[in-house]
Amino acid sequence: MLFNYKAVDTSGRVLTGSIDAINIEVAITSLQRRGLTLSTIVPQGARSMLTRNIGFFQRVKGKDIVILSRQVATLFEAQISALRIFRLLAVESDHPVLQQALLLIADDIQAGSSISKALAKHPHIFSNFYVSMVKAGEEAGKIDKTFNFLADYLERTYEVSSKAKNALIYPVFVICTFIAVMVLMMVTVIPSVSSILAQADQQLPVYTRVVLGISDFFVRFGWFLLILVVGGSLGLWRYVKTPAGRYAYSDFKIKVPYVGDLYRKLYFSRISDNLNTMLLSAIPIVKALEITSEVVDNAVFERVLTDAAEGVKNGSSIADSLGQSTVIPGIMIQMIKVGEESGELGHILETLGRFYRREVANAVDTLVSLIEPALIVLLGLGVGFLLASVLIPIYSLAGAV
After folding, report:
1. pLDDT, tens only, 167-189
2. DSSP readout, 63-89?
3. Structure pTM?
4. Least buried of 23, 127, 320, 335, by fewest C-beta within 10 Å?
5. What residue intervals traverse the membrane (predicted)?
């Protein structure tokens, strides 16, 4: 297998070329024996520049970071150097964005940078929480355990978030399909039927006139309505990107009946698990609260955690600082208070995280069990009303003939 490399020789000259080897480890060893200091080494023809550029528009998923963290931890436990780990994982990665980032990280490590500083240059992949955990692991000399902590934490977070998102995909898909079918019938089928009913000198039921009126509105003003919906959606999307809009949307998410309860439990689980993981890595509680506020992914809880961090800085306890907010449940505040007084805060947070993960799973199961029959009833009523509005007048007209 051919590998393209860029290296510096003993005289300081920059060399580029290719080497044939069984794998990248053999290639690196062979080049180092020649007295070369490697800058980059990648398989020849693995990806074209076009593919790499297109890859930068791809998003690195949480699942990819979980797998990467587990691989890094395993390789550190095998006593492999950080430079070789990131070069090896870069070659093995199938994700263009992640591969490019890992190569750059390896270059920074080779230049003398710490792992945390190298990771911090890629905030679109590695969050502030991730970087802070790695930095704490470097300072404590427990980098392998830190990556294991990260892999466990990210795996739990990914599992809970995926379960919550997947629960909402099915009802959203069914509702959107139902709306699309109803609109299609209103603009294609109903107008044809309305021309038949119009020719008959017969008084139509109220519900039939309502359906015909809606159909006529869609036919006459359909394009205007579509433009209005698209424009309104774009305007709403831009508003949500503003600080005020993001806060309003976050507040709406946690106040929607049933779904809001699911989101709240998801955030409680994330906060507890995140704080516990950071405390295990000996990160100060103020720093832990500040970082958690950045990764909680909800503006309301972000403000709560930011205010709590300020309160702890001013000498208040964590429980008292969090207790100033109305969105944190009393049971969570009381358990944190017990943890602070007993010196078992980490254990309490772990228990809370586990409790709310179970609550999220139960809430998802309950929500799905309620949504499915509700959707069936809704679809049945909608289709039945539409058919009754059209067929009853037609049957009446046929009976009169």
Report:
1. 778 788 888 888 888 888 888 87
2. HHHHHHHHHHHHHHHTT--HHHHHHHH
3. 0.68
4. 23
5. 168-197, 217-237, 375-398
